[in-house]
Design brief:
5 domains, alpha+beta, Beta-Lactamase, five-stranded antiparallel beta sheet
Length: 568
């Protein structure tokens, strides 16, 4: 039996008490014989009944009205809270009619995200914001039995501009303006869906690259055990992936274990190793040459937890490099042989020309002195003796140059550095040149340097400077100027010899310092082609440089640059 409502019980209780009151009070009054007392008592009894009844009615009405006011206030507060949460929710929300599917209300987030105004929304149905191909599925979903709170899952929605987005839908059945409706919350998950899809596509691409890579790829844990390997690794070493997983690499030779562990440690410190060349052994025992590049793999907290290694088989390349190196050695030897043959030809040509003329003069003067000495005048005798001395000295200089070059080629150049006064050396060389010039050339010297004491091989520098001065006079017309200048800066010492001679053709400059090579425009001017080669060698032994600037018909400028570190 259902429980009796409170208001009915209170009414019955009041009725019983009131009836009992009337019966008892009438019975008491009937026992009183005085009519005046009875009449007055009846009046007070009625007034008391009315007062008590009014008081009870007031209490009951006050309680009921207070309850209703409280309920109304709670309802208004609930509506205000709902309205606030609905309108200001950062997620798109709307209410639609379950029968007509028309939008009944939308919040600002839905307006902002979907691009429709409120008026446009309220003129649409929920089918209008779906792609047409998704509407049948929506209608099937709506036709099914629905719980009050439903998580509808992932759906596609179409914005006003036609863009398709993915949303996660949660709906709740409500009463709205007297009709059955549903409150919908739509969470835009397009970016997460796209990110998940991109991640999957990226993973698939990496997997395809990993499997299709022509080079072996391994992933090691921090202990050097294999976590992953690709098909190229199996082809390279002969072990299948199932045999390698969880194992330290069996293809590392015993004598290379320490080297392998060092590579893993370097990768664990975030060092990227590229093209590290070493040896590995195949399953069949064949030793191969490999190039290894390693890098660390980080987890979400940026901690290194794996190492990736890319391995290329460079055995064939190394074999080809060795073959090319051998061929290059043969080519260099052949070039050297050709160079020596050319040098020999130039040497023979120089000997046949440069030695024959002085020897002819010496022989001729000797014959004249031997046959006609008594008949010759004192002046003629002196001239013949002078020719013999001059040309013998020239032959001696040429032989010295040849011997110096041959000695340098066979046992290396002799280099004995001692403290040398560079200014004094230049003055001495200029003085000797002036004696040889016999006033045919004007030889000037300018000393612009400060500290001139250097640690050098005096013999080599003197020979170099004498060669430059000799060439300057040889290839310059008489009475022209030959200038020598010495200066220094913070980094180098400089000796410059400039002439006003025939100059050097541009096409000859690149070969000017080759032994026995002479410029094309020297004509009948005697020379061996050794002086500049020896000069360059002497300068380079001092870690210096020899530079030349020249123009045909305008002369040449040779500059020796010596490092300032030679100063003592």
């Amino acid at each position: 039996m259902p429980r009796m409502r409170l208001e009915l019980r209170l009414s019955l209780l009041y009725f019983a008490l009131a009836t009992l009151w009337i019966i008892l009070s009438d019975a008491l009054l009937a026992a009183v014989a005085v009519p005046e007392i009875v009449s007055a008592a009846q009046t007070y009894k009625g007034a008391l009944f009315v007062f008590v009844t009014s008081l009870l009615l007031f209490v009951l009405l006050s309680r009921e009205m207070g309850r209703r006011r409280k309920a109304d206030r709670a309802a208004r507060e609930g509506e205000m809270k709902f309205s606030y949460l609905f309108l200001n929710n950062p997620l798109p929300m709307w209410i639609y009619d379950l029968e007509t599917l028309a939008f009944l209300d939308v919040n600002q987030a839905a307006i902002d995200q979907y691009g429709y105004s409120r008026a446009e929304f309220l003129s649409l149905k929920i089918t209008d914001i779906r792609p047409p191909e998704d509407v049948p599925r929506l209608m099937e979903n709506l036709a099914e039995a629905r719980p009050a709170l439903q998580r509808s899952g992932l759906w596609r929605h179409r914005l006003k501009n036609g863009q398709i987005i993915y949303v996660d839908i949660v709906s709740y059945e409500v009463r709205f303006d007297g009709c059955a409706a549903a409150l919908v919350v739509a969470h835009n998950v397009t970016e997460s869906i796209r990110a998940r899809r991109d991640l999957q596509e990226s993973s698939e691409r990496l997997k395809a690259v990993f499997n299709a890579s022509p080079v072996a790829i391994f992933v090691f844990d921090t202990e050097g055990r294999i976590r992953l390997s690709n098909p190229a690794a199996e082809q390279m070493y002969g072990w299948g992936a199932a045999e390698l997983i969880g194992q330290r690499p069996p293809f590392v030779p015993p004598d290379k274990t320490t080297e392998f562990d060092a590579l893993i440690r370097r990768a664990l410190t975030d060092e990227i190793v590229t093209n590290f060349e070493t040896e590995r052994v195949r399953r069949d025992g064949e030793l191969i040459q490999v190039s290894i590049s390693t890098a660390a793999i980080h987890d979400a907290d940026s901690a290194v937890y794996e190492v990736v290694a890319v391995v290329s088989d460079i055995t064939e390349r190394k074999r080809m490099e060795a073959d090319l190196l051998e061929k290059e050695k043969l080519r260099l030897a052949l070039n050297k042989e050709v160079e020596l043959r050319n040098m020999r030809d130039r040497f023979m040509s120089m000997v046949s020309h440069e030695f024959r003329n002085p020897l002819s003069v010496i022989v001729s003067s000797g014959d004249m002195l031997e046959r006609y000495y008594p008949r010759l005048s004192e002046e003629s005798r002196s001239e013949h003796f002078a020719n013999i001395r001059t040309y013998a000295s020239r032959l001696t200089d040429m032989l010295d140059d040849i011997l110096a070059l041959l000695r340098a080629e066979s046992i290396g150049p002799e280099f004995k550095p001692t403290p040398v006064d560079l200014a004094q050396l230049c003055e001495n060389a200029v003085g000797e040149a002036r004696l040889k010039a016999q006033n045919q050339w004007q030889i000037h010297f300018a000393n612009l340097s400060g500290q001139t004491i250097i640690k050098a091989d005096e013999k080599l520098l003197r020979h170099a400077l004498n060669n430059l001065l000799s060439n300057a006079m040889k290839y310059s017309p008489p009475q022209s100027v030959v200038s020598v200048k010495l200066w220094q800066d913070d980094q180098r010492l400089h000796i410059q010899v400039a002439d006003q001679g025939i100059g050097i053709p541009p096409e000859n400059l690149k070969r000017l310092f080759e032994p026995f090579y002479r410029a094309e425009n020297v004509g009948d001017i005697p020379g061996t082609g050794l002086g500049l080669a020896i000069t360059k060698q002497a300068v380079e032994l001092h870690n210096g440089q020899l530079e030349v600037e020249s123009a045909v018909g305008l002369g040449s400028v040779f500059t020796i640059h010596l490092p300032a570190s030679l100063t003592t």
